[in-house]
Design goal:
binds fe (ii) ion; 7-stranded mixed β-sheet; single chain; about 20% helix; 6 helices; alpha+beta
Amino acid sequence: MTGSASAHSAMRHVPLRPFGRIVEAPAGSRISEIPVEKLVRWTEESRVLVLRGFSLLEKQEFADYCRRWGEVLRWEAGEVIDLIVEENPKNYLFASGDVPFHWDGAFVEADPRFFFFQCLDATPGAGGETVFSDTTAVYRDADPALRERWSKISLTYKTDKLAHYGGEVTERLVAQHPATGMPVLRFAEPLDPAVYKNPVYATVDGIDAAEADDFLATTAELVHRPEYCYAHAWQAGDLVIADNFALIHGRNAFTGPTTRHLQRVEVI
Ligand SMILES: [Fe+2]
């Protein structure tokens, strides 16, 4: 048996609820030992893949590894974004409050297929779980009348550029997953300027203006239902790969002081 084959047989796959999977490997395993095609398949099947027991990568190594999956999105700050909670941030992503649902890269030209996180430090029990909502399941459960209504809707999002993103974008609510072909919802929650440091404004096309607020509220309620959401409580050493088309994601507020440090890379 080769080293790589024995590493595979030592891995344990644990299904998460209501979706997702943890792959646990003996300490010191390398993510590069698993063929990328296999990891892509697991990610598409599970939508969120949590790898535990694997060695974390140096910053440049992390970007270079992700390049094996596809083109890496380059932000002004570089290919790897450090997510550390700050005292007085300009952008809510770096604050300790909640982060409403969105998909990554809405305000850049390219639509990332996957995003990768590695967790360098975490404070268990202090909140801040990353919450993923499976929009393929939300769509699956919608009745024909609702699907028909959704098919006519487009949303325009606007935000100021205070961190590594900003601008205006219009998207149809229902899009097609580029790999699986399944319908997905491109829904981001508007951010109230009274609550968030960098508000996101949403305007809705395809329904009566009078119904827009109700549409935004009911859709937000729907995607937050527990049967569609997996909340990831971070442990230092976690590597997480998520499907940025099938899912939208956000973050629970922190409930206490945290030293959490994540690094994130987006693959187009
Ligand atoms: Fe995000």
